[in-house]
C-alpha cells in the first residue's frame, strides 16, 4: 500500500533525532578508532551503493548501518584529536546545538521580514564579536558600517572586491574596468585570485608581490609603494590592497599600519584577511597583530576555524555598508515590503551573493554565551601553548629544523637533508609526510616555500582541547 506523506510529526522527530544524537555521540566516543585520514581509493563508494534511489522508504536503522559501514570509512576525521592538518575547523557542543536549532527552525532569512530575529541577532552578535576583537567603532552596526556572516572567507573577499570595484567604477566610469589593479603578496590565499576572476579584474592587473624569508614572508610596504608608482605612471588605477594576518603557508603577518598608510595615500580600499588568526586577537596579548585595522575598510575572520563555531561561519565587517549594498542589491517586486521600503531595517540579501541565507548567528551566539569570553581566550592560549611545546620538541631534535618563526598555533618544520641538498631534502620530507599520513594515526599537511622547499605543518589542536574542556 502506498504510504501517505505526513507533515513533520513531532514525536517521530523526537525519536529519530534522539537516535541521531546517540549516533553522533557514539561517533565522538570512538573517533580515535578510525584512521584519521580516510584510506579509501577514489570511486570506492559507487561500488557500495545502488545505482538509483529507492522507490520505497527505508528505515533510519538501515541508513545508519550504511553510514557506519560505508560512509565513515570515507570520512577524514577533522574532529579527531589526531588531526593536525591545514587549519583547525573546530566544533563544539555549543556550535553543534546552534547548528541543530538553525536546522530545526529552517528559516531563510534573506530580508528582515523573513525572520526579524535572524537579522537582528546577526547584527548584535557581530557587534559583540567586533568589541571582543577591539575593532574600531566604524565597524559596528551603529555607524555607517556593520558586520555580516558569510559562508567562507572566499565569499567575504569576493563581496569586498565587488564593493570596492563598483565604488571605483562609479567614479572613473564603467569602461575603466581594465585599469583597476589589485595588490597582494605571493602568500595571500588563492581566494583573492578567484575573486578577481569572478569580478572581471584583468589578470594582468593582479599584482602578486614577492615575499621572502628575510621578512618572514610578510608583504613589504616599500615594494608595494614602488609597484603602485609604476602602475600609476602607466595610467592604471590601484583600487584594492589585500593584507593577511596569518597566511596559509606560514602564518605570516603583513605589517598593517605601514600598508594602511600606502593604501590611504593612494585612495585604495584596504581589506584584511585574518581568516585563521583573527580568533587569537580576542586575547589582549595577540591583539597587536591586528593593530592597523583602524585604517582598514574591511576585516574578515572565520569563526568556523578557530572559534569553536561549527562550519560555516565567516565574519566580515565593513566600514561603508553602502558600498556593499550598492554592488549587490536588487529590488524585485516580490521582495518589496514596508520595513525594507522605509529603510528601517537591514536586509542581508544585499550584503552577499545568494538570496537565501541560514540562521548562522545562532551558533555563534551560543558559542559566545555557553563558553564566555574568558574560556574562549583560555582555549586559544592553550592551543598556542601546545604548538609551542611541539616547536620545542622539534628544536631539540637535530634531525629537524623549524622553518619560520611560530606566531600562533601553526608550526612549520622539516627534516634536514644530511648534505644540504635541496632536492634530496624535499624527497625526504615528502616521504615522511606520506609515511606518517598512511599510518592513519595522525594527519599533517605540507606546503612549499617561495624558495621551493617543502615543509610540513602542524596545526589544529582544537580537538585535543575539546576532549579536555567540554
Ligand atoms: C582558510 C583561509 C582562507 C579561506 O577560507 P574559506 O573560508 O575556506 O574560504 C582564506 N584566507 C586565509 C588567511 C585562510 O586562513
TrEMBL record:
InterPro entries xref list: Aromatic_deC, PyrdxlP-dep_de-COase, PyrdxlP-dep_Trfase, PyrdxlP-dep_Trfase_major, PyrdxlP-dep_Trfase_small, Pyridoxal-P_BS
Protein name as catalogued: Tyrosine decarboxylase
Lyase recorded as keyword: yes
Lineage per the UniProt record: Eukaryota, Viridiplantae, Streptophyta, Embryophyta, Tracheophyta
PANTHER family xref list: GROUP II PYRIDOXAL-5-PHOSPHATE DECARBOXYLASE, MIP05841P
Coiled coil: none
Keywords: Decarboxylase, Lyase, Pyridoxal phosphate
Organism: Eucalyptus grandis (Flooded gum)
Homology family: Belongs to the group II decarboxylase family.
Cofactor needs: pyridoxal 5'-phosphate
Database matches in Pfam families: Pyridoxal_deC
GO MF assignments: carboxy-lyase activity; pyridoxal phosphate binding
N6-(pyridoxal phosphate)lysine: modified positions: 305
